[in-house]
TrEMBL record:
<dbReference type="Pfam" id="PF00505">
    <property type="entry name" value="HMG_box"/>
</dbReference>
<dbReference type="GO" id="GO:0005634">
    <property type="term" value="C:nucleus"/>
</dbReference>
<dbReference type="InterPro" id="IPR036910">
    <property type="entry name" value="HMG_box_dom_sf"/>
</dbReference>
<feature type="domain" description="HMG box">
    <location>
        <begin position="47"/>
        <end position="115"/>
    </location>
</feature>
<keyword id="KW-0732">Signal</keyword>
<keyword id="KW-0238">DNA-binding</keyword>
<dbReference type="GO" id="GO:0003677">
    <property type="term" value="F:DNA binding"/>
</dbReference>
<protein>
    <recommendedName>
        <fullName>HMG box domain-containing protein</fullName>
    </recommendedName>
</protein>
<keyword id="KW-0539">Nucleus</keyword>
<dbReference type="InterPro" id="IPR009071">
    <property type="entry name" value="HMG_box_dom"/>
</dbReference>
<feature type="signal peptide">
    <location>
        <begin position="1"/>
        <end position="19"/>
    </location>
</feature>
<dbReference type="InterPro" id="IPR050342">
    <property type="entry name" value="HMGB"/>
</dbReference>
<feature type="DNA-binding region" description="HMG box">
    <location>
        <begin position="47"/>
        <end position="115"/>
    </location>
</feature>
């Protein structure tokens, strides 16, 4: 801990004496550096990965379990939901699995469109 604190004290002294980290220097530097171009037309970036069947079940059951047990810890809530998931029959799990499969297929389509968009942009700018 001592060497680190000595380094920070030294950096603070340099900053104060030379004014390296003053707002005036920051403003001057920000005016010189040009803004970066964004090569993507979407602000969100790549699509998010879809939820698995289990995570869909957890997302649905968490508010219910919290409402039934308001004083229980988060870890215990997850344990309780996991135990419920293990006791479900395949027929009860089917809606969650089908939703997961559909979301996975949509993700593949969205990811392909995103990758095509990324590969087309550099060639358009030449």
């Amino acid at each position: 801990m001592a060497p680190f604190s000595l380094m920070t004290v030294g950096a603070n002294l340099l900053a104060r004496s030379w004014g390296l980290f003053s707002t005036a220097v920051t403003v001057r530097c920000s005016c010189v550096v040009p803004t970066l171009k964004n090569f993507s037309t979407t602000a969100g970036g790549p699509p998010k990965r879809p939820l698995t069947a289990y995570l869909r079940y957890v997302k649905e059951q968490q508010p219910i379990v919290v409402k039934q047990n308001p004083d229980i810890r988060v870890v215990d809530i997850v344990r309780k939901i996991a135990q419920q998931w293990r006791t479900l029959t395949p027929e009860e799990k089917r809606p969650f699995e089908e939703a997961s499969i559909a979301a996975r297929e949509q993700y593949k389509v969205d990811m392909k469109a995103y990758q095509d968009q990324l590969t087309r942009l550099p060639s358009l700018q030449l």
